[in-house]
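ok, trying the design again with the full structure, not the truncated one.
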């Protein structure tokens, strides 16, 4: 009798687990349909990337590709932005493993995607045509002259003394004479407890029309996860452009298993 009950409970637990897993899959409104880009992060970064920043470094290791910004806080020559040479368009999923290799509690990491220039003679849509204007990667050069989505994460206020005051924020750069004013998309997340130094997180960012989601999962701890959702329909959509990882001065992190998918 006890064995029968045990087997019944085991079977019930097994099928319940499968049902929960299936539910998670079914709840995701998109599916990956075509792999557009792949970089494990262990080969030569120059093959698929271009780098902004006089004092930025990229170091390939077997653990992934480390982007290292310059060490001087407050010095704009120490910012770093690593861009894909390839451009992407439409509905995509960007995914990668991210590991902080700094221990600071100030300033931000940024993911840019569908980034293009504002389209005039000085800042044409193809940002590779004005790489020389980003040798010193002033933030204003980007938000004043690019159309792009921007997600700040593993991010902290400039004046901050607590490792717990992180935030995640979506912006949509829309070049005008107002700078960053009015670029916020509602849906900020504060004090997430994520992105601990030395801990690997799997990140997936989905852009489907005006809906953007960021899925974050601790690779060692299944219970530590977060899904951020934003409706960016208040802005005209960014339809195409490059993907970039930005580190402000003093920020370092490692990237591995980077993929970009078309989704439908």
């Amino acid at each position: 009798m006890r064995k029968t009950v045990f087997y019944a409970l085991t079977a019930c637990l097994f099928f319940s687990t499968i049902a929960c897993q299936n539910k998670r899959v079914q709840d995701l409104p998109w599916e990956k349909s075509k792999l557009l880009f792949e970089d494990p992060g262990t080969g030569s970064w120059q093959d698929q990337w271009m780098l902004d920043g006089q004092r930025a470094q990229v170091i390939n290791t077997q653990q992934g590709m480390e982007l290292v910004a310059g060490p001087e806080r407050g010095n704009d020559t120490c910012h770093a932005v690593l861009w894909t040479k390839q451009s992407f368009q439409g509905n995509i999923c960007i995914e990668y493993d991210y590991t902080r290799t700094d221990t600071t509690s100030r300033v931000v990491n940024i993911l840019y995607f569908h980034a293009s220039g504002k389209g005039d003679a000085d800042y044409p849509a193809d940002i590779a045509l004005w790489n020389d204007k980003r040798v010193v990667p002033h933030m204003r050069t980007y938000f004043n002259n690019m159309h792009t989505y921007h997600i700040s994460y593993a991010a902290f206020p400039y004046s901050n003394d607590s490792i717990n005051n992180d935030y995640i924020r979506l912006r949509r750069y829309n070049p005008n004479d107002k700078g960053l004013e009015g670029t916020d998309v509602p849906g900020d997340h504060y004090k997430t407890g994520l992105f601990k130094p030395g801990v690997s997180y799997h990140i997936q960012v989905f852009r489907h029309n005006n809906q953007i989601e960021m899925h974050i999962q601790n690779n060692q701890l299944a219970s530590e996860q977060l899904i951020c959702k934003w409706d960016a329909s208040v802005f005209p959509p960014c339809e195409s452009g490059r993907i970039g990882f930005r580190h402000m001065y003093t920020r370092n992190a490692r990237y591995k298993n980077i993929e970009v998918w078309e989704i439908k």
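Keeping the full-length input from now on. The chain has two domains: 1-30, 33-263.
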